[in-house]
Each structure stands twice: as C-alpha cells, then as structure tokens.
## 1
Amino acid sequence: MSRTSSAEVEAPDGAERWTPPRLESEIVSYASETREEYESTLGQLDLDRIHWDVSRRLFRAGGYCRSRIEEGPTHEIVVSYPAYIYWGWDRVKEIVRHEMVHAVVFEEYGPDAAPHGDEFRALARRVNAPLRGEEALPYRFELLCSVCGRFLDGLYEPSVRTKSPREYRSNCCMAPLEVDEKRSYHELREF
Ligand SMILES: [Zn+2]
Ligand SMILES: [Zn+2]
C-alpha cells in the first residue's frame, strides 16, 4: 500500500489519520475484501451498485445506507468522518460491514424489511457485524456553567456559543458559560 505523507496528519496519540478521500478509498478496498471473505453472505452484492461516501458533517450516526429500487437496487452508503476520528478505523470497518448487511437485506427482503429485524440480525451475525451500527457520536462541544459545572448543552458543530461562551449566561447561576471540546475531535480541525 503506497502512502503519501502530504495526505496524512499526525494524530495527538501518534497514530496516523487518513484524510476523507483516503478514508473513502480504504473503505472501497475493505468492502471488496469483506465481500470475498464472507462470500456466502455478501457474495450476491454487486459492489458497482454501491456508492460510497465519507461525510465530514455526519455526527448523528456512524453511517447509514440508503437503498433505492431501480432497474436493480442501488445503495448509497455514507460513513461519518468524525466517527473515524473519534472511534478509529476498526470501528469504521464494523460500520462498513453493518451497512453492507443493510444492502443485502434490502435486496433479499425488499424495502419493507425491518431495519434491524430478524433477517438483519441473522445476516449480521454471519459477517461479525455489530447489530446496532447507527448510534450517534458523543458531542464534540459541551457547554457548561462556569460556576457550578452543570452540563447545559451539547453541540457537534462550532457555533457563536462555542466561540464566545463567556458572552452567554447560564440559567442556574447566571454565570458565563464554558466550553469543553472533546480531545479526539481536535484532529478534525486539520481538515
Ligand atoms: Zn443499521
Ligand atoms: Zn451553574
């Protein structure tokens, strides 16, 4: 695997982190390997019918699969870049397997199959995918009362309140706010 140093940044923990385009190409390769590894379960999936995308703004889920019936079904699978930053590549691989199972369930059982129903669970176990794959990420920013430390609000994106928290007051103590940004998210600033 060739590595281009300009496309990577050094994470605070020393681990290297891929950029969104690099992550997307790694996901495409991994999906192809995974389809071969679990041929009996995923072999029917035509990977040309899957469009992969990495979103920098998806915080409410690690990923999702949106399937459509056309001449043959097509699937758009979106993976959260913040999830990669926060949870790492191994977790992203689980998300990829989970979303591929959604695609198979759609093709085998149609659009009315329950999202995480019996059919899904049986197939997910066979490819060692987590049964739940869409949980939200922890908040990137927490707004706190600067006097009593109470949690007031959580946000995923920077806002006027996260940029100038001291210009806002808490209801509990009528005190300026403080902002706590989760350490793992600091890497997102690079992109
Ligand atoms: Zn799911
Ligand atoms: Zn307070």
Note: The CA atoms of residues 53 and 133 lie 16 Å apart.
## 2
Amino acid sequence: MGTTPHPTAIRFVEDDHLLEITFSDDVTHEYRTEILRGYCPCAHCQGHGSMPHDWNELRREPEVLISDISQVGNYAICIAWEDGHNTGVYSFEILRQIAEEPSEVLGDYPPEQMDDVDW
Ligand SMILES: [Zn+2]
C-alpha cells in the first residue's frame, strides 16, 4: 500500500524486551516492547483512537512479552502478548513513526514509567 516500507524480517529478543524489525528499504529499527504495548493502538487501549496515542501503565511482565505476530492485510502486523491481549494492530507506517518521530505519534513521550520499569 502506497510507498510505506514493509517489514522483511522481524525478531523478538525476549530477554531484552526488544522487537527488531528490518524494513524493505533496508532500515532496521529496535523497539522496546514496553513502548509497543504501553501505547497499544487498539480501540480498547486508545478509546476513540485519536492521535497521539495515550500511554497505558504496565503492571506485569507478560504484558510486554510477545507470544505471536501475524500479518494483517498488506499494511500492518498484529502483536499478541503473553497476557492474552491480541487486538493491537500496528500499521507499517506507525511502526516507522514510533521509531523515527515518536513524539509526533506517542503522547507524553517518553512516558514517566519508563524510568522505573524493572520487572
Ligand atoms: Zn490494546
């Protein structure tokens, strides 16, 4: 869809809570899973889905461990988390924005809680 680069490789480094995504333009970004989950874009987490996305406080480690990733159409991936939450659909476009211009798409970035997340 359009010219947004799509992922060509995705790797979850569980011990470090990192998701590494390589895109079709050979750019690789690393994402802390705390950020991906804390700003989960689903309607349940974001209400009406206005931008920027709101931070939702993290409470337990399974919330930031990925159990499955599936592709949605040709524009997004869906991340399922170990606590059972599986409604977050991350478009390729927002994934690039989270890495490249986070304060444009993530409210109150970086979130205060990030300083003391220590499972
Ligand atoms: Zn959600």
Note: The two ends are 38 Å apart (CA to CA).
